[in-house]
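During the no-cost extension, the postdoctoral fellow (Dr. R.K.) reprocessed legacy sequence entries with the updated structure-token encoder. One reprocessed record is reproduced below for audit purposes.
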Amino acid sequence: MTDETKNPSDTSHLRKYSSEVVDGISKAPGRAMLRAVGFKDADFKKPQIGIASTWSMVTPCNMHIDGLADAAGEGADAAGGKSVIFNTITISDGIANGTEGMKYSLVSREVIADSIETVAGCEGFDGIVAIGGCDKNMPGCVMAMSRLDRPSVFVYGGTIKPGKNHTDIISVFEAVGAHAKGDLNLIEVKQIEETAIPGAGSCGGMYTANTMASAIEALGMSLPGSSAQDAISGDKMEDCRRAGAAVVELLKRDIKPSDIMTRKSFENAITVVIALAGSTNAVLHLLAMADAAGVKLEINDFVEIGKRVPVLADLRPSGKYMMSELVAIGGIQPLMKMLLDAGMLHGDVLTVTGKTMAENLADVAAYPAGQDIIRPLNNPIKKDSHLRILFGNLAPTGSVAKITGKEGLTFTGSARVFGSEEETLDRILDGTVQAGDVLVIRYEGPKGGPGMREMLSPTSAIMGKGLGNDVALITDGRFSGGSHGFVVGHITPEAAEGGPIALIEDGDIITIDAVANTISVNLSDAELAARRTRWVAPKPRYTKGALAKFAKLVSSASEGAVTDKNL
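Re-encoded structure tokens follow.
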């Protein structure tokens, strides 16, 4: 049959996967099941679009996503597809931080990826729209899309509005430290607690959620503008409808994630994360997403790209503005246009619009005159990256720091060693921690935690106590995007594997140098070797269930802490 005589209603070429589930007499039982959930005769001839919703009342980040999933489904249906909405899980870092439950946070990224892959693979969806609203949803969704390699679009659930007096979730964490210092009474803390989170949407600064949303848009896997929209807005609803329609168009053009997520597109994502002063978690998640996509990406790539990309965004936690204020002046599209024009982005990469990045950005207007949220390239906040990949005798295979320069660029202090986040927080709040200390939190890595908890509670307490310029913190765990100060995480090898961080003792002198990109302890190789002979590997903290499986399978943080790398 020629193109001229082809029946325009024939969509069999778009139904590579769903046809296996619904076509033919032998599939009558499956069709019967689908009729019960709303399928009509005509729907069986349409490509099926799975709408992966992360809706949950667990957290405000995701509490509105059911409505967004409905809108994405409407868009897919209107474009000639048949949408099928399904759910995956979410957890809340903001609620779980500082507790044993936080060990499940990074684990949830793997569960989300596995569950979306499982449902879409089983049900035969031809295309995917995934909607994420919290930190681990986003990389988890994209990892699943990479594994499935079916036409896909990611939609960000959107950012929250600021709370009263320009507060957000980090304001509450830091209020705890301010109370311990005596600067806030209990009533004042409660007032911040009651008003900092006004409704739906992801945490309001350039924390991990907004960082990863921006990275995924720069990667080409979201429609232009998706990363910078308020959660409750007409723009976000329209973004979802357009995403549903876009997947159907991608199906028609046979454009898959493997066509979009290339080495160049990951370089674009890293560039945008640096310009925005994004979260250290972007290192972990981009490595994991690249691994799922089969793209070679290493932590040293962040070093090389960081040499030529400046920090331009004055956004929280190190800056003063929130994401909603960046939304109001145009989001990240004008920033990307600025970077493209300066030769810092690859404009020839394909995106989910079916166009190249350069084509998407061609008509984007500059930021309005007088705004100071995004600096011009000739007046950056920092001339090179804030994400510092540090090596040395404390981190032979690497570590990740977020140093904007406001904290200084070097720190030397005396080690004060802790075996858990909880113990560290107690000693900060009771005044044991003093200026000049380098707090060492170990056995919090991917295997040792297990789960690589974020150290948001202790870093926020340090800030609240007024020690942000006087204390450093290092860990084989990781940090929330809301953490700031002189902090170094992702130290590898981790303590549970006998890494040098396991050998540190109180009083050892540690030097962190964000210019030379080194982290070292003032001990000889001989002394470290002698201590290693005395080190005893810890027993696993969990022997059954999700945490035990994660600890057994997880790779190093320097490789993205993924669970299927060495299978």
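The first strand starts at residue 48 and ends at 53. The CA atoms of residues 347 and 357 lie 5 Å apart. The remaining legacy entries will be reprocessed before the final report is submitted.
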